[in-house]
Write a structure and sequence with these properties.
By secondary structure, the protein is α/β, with parallel strands linked by helices. α3 (about 60-70) packs parallel to α4 (about 80-90). The chain starts with a helix and ends with a strand. It is built from ten helices and eleven strands. The longest helix is centred in the N-terminal third of the chain and has 15 residues, at about 35-50. β1, α2 and β2 (about 55-60) form a beta-alpha-beta unit.
């Protein structure tokens, strides 16, 4: 607890000159759905230190990127994959020098707690598995990663007809929890928040695509100076503590 308190004090030290007064601002963050709990916790601490209000729009990264391209007012984009950030950078919509690869994650297969039909990925081809939930690969990074893994493992042709595409990784989790599907592929961090599912298989890192969460300041955002300060806080030690507690792998390298 003392170590955590010390890190929070370090975060506070980085906010010198940012008093909680009438000059407080609202910072709007578009973030991947899988970051919901961790970012809300970080924002709660930051708001107490800065006085600024952090407002989130959580959804699939592809959906958020499209909203940004269409002109939605936002200050920071925190994506669950690099390709969506790449697309925004190519269109000149992010402040390139603020882009950082921040987090890593891993894929797991989840099923209902009483399910006995799945022991390995090859069981996806069995008749007992009729519906397999994935994030829609067109818009949801978790689904894009899952499809790539299934293609690489040679299972995609056999399971493609069973796939139920969902609007976000959290929608996949909800589908498994409700029993509407037999299994789903989600991030390890998402599986950890549910008491209604069990992890039946963790995809080895060597067999899965590299999962990378980049964050960057957006050009033309409503509160650029305050947003930059919050983004800096997200890259710091106090945020490290929270992200690690929620099961994310920490990355501190700039994206080139």
């Amino acid at each position: 607890m003392k170590a955590i308190a010390a890190l929070l004090l370090l975060g506070a030290a980085g906010l010198c000159g940012l008093p909680a007064d009438s000059h407080a601002a609202q910072v709007t963050v578009f973030a991947a759905a899988s970051l919901n709990e961790s970012l809300k916790e970080i924002a709660t601490d930051y708001q107490k230190l800065s006085g600024d209000k952090i407002v989130f729009n959580f959804a699939a990264s592809g959906t958020l990127a499209r909203q940004i391209e269409e002109g939605a007012p936002a200050d920071v984009f925190f994506s669950a994959d690099e390709s969506r950030m790449d697309a925004l950078e190519m269109k000149g919509l992010i402040v390139k020098e603020t882009r950082h690869r921040r987090l890593g994650n891993s894929l797991v297969v989840v099923a209902a707690k009483d399910s006995a039909a799945i022991h390995s990925p090859s069981d996806f081809t069995n008749a007992a598995i009729q519906r397999l939930a994935l994030g829609d690969p067109k818009t949801v990074p978790a689904g894009t990663y899952a499809k790539a893994w299934l293609e690489e493992s040679g299972l995609w042709p056999s399971v493609q007809g069973k796939v139920i595409p969902c609007e976000s990784v959290r929608a996949v989790l909800a589908a498994v929890e409700s029993g509407n599907v037999d299994a789903g592929v989600v991030y390890k961090t998402d599986a950890a928040i549910s008491r209604e599912v069990r992890v039946v298989f963790e995809v080895p890192a060597a067999e899965a695509p590299k999962i990378s969460y980049p964050a960057a300041l957006l050009k033309g955002g409503p509160s650029p100076e305050r947003a930059r300060k919050f983004l800096d806080y997200l890259m710091g030690d106090a945020a490290d503590v929270v992200f690690a507690q929620h099961g994310f792998a920490l990355i501190r390298a700039n994206s080139e």
